[in-house]
Amino acid sequence: MTTTWRDYWDLTKPKVVALIVFTALVGMFLAVPALPTIEQVLSGALGFLGIWLAAAAAAAINQLLDARIDAQMARTSWRPLVVGKVSPRQVLVFAGALTALSMTILVLWVNVITAVLTFASLIGYAVIYTVYLKRATSQNIVIGGLAGATPPLLGWAAITGMQGSSDWAHALLLVLIIFIWTPPHFWALAIFRRADYAKADVPMLPVTHGVPHTRRQILVYSVVLAVVTLLPVAIGMSGMFYLGGATVLNLVFLWYAWKMQNPPDEMFNMKMFGYSIVYLMALFAFLLVDHWLLPWL
After folding, report:
1. Where do the TM regions start and end (predicted)?
2. pTM
3. Residue 264 belongs to what domain range?
4. Contact (Cβ atoms closer than 8 angstroms) between residue 158 and residue 111
């Protein structure tokens, strides 16, 4: 079977990576109080490329290490490594090349702190979560979600180098939002795919503690998420435009979480999962638009 460029592209989980690098891009723009300088634009562009390459490498490593599980799940049984379109050696070489290129770009043309944070995130997701946490605890997505929540911090670091305490405070607040968002986002999918996870012997929360418990946890995290997303306004990082957008998004998210307690049908789990993706993209878009509007309001 001939390997094509599309097979390598599918190894990078492009839809997942797109959401990751979008939040990183917003982190970059939020780090700049006014219009960026030419130097900041160049650093941001190279930082964006380096972060994207690292995220793509992490996705490929994840598929390499999860090949056995992927083969048993309907959602992932089509992946190129599972169906034999690429070999494990090809995936390893591909992921290694992406990682090396990412680190070279970040170290030489962005800054060392971005490279270190990006590499730590790659290891956190591709190795610590995939190899250990995913198979060890029903809280896997909670603990492991920290690695997936770091892109705004990486983007911020690419622009500022994290020179001041305010850089860390603001960037880590963005990380916190994604960290709290991840469990209700993923558990909605896990409920729908619980039979697959049980078959693959992956201890996702719906498998180990049951669907009703998972639904209650989704509601709890959704309430906490609604509170956390108001913190940018509380600390003066964002203004009324963001507040209005976040309020609407949170009301809809809470409605989904409430309906999840007694959903009308099994597909409602996927409706919440789908909305959660729109929610995060829209929330970060509101942060970005508000950032540019705030000086004029």
Report:
1. 16-35, 41-65, 91-110, 116-133, 140-159, 171-192, 218-235, 241-260, 272-294
2. 0.96
3. 166-296
4. yes
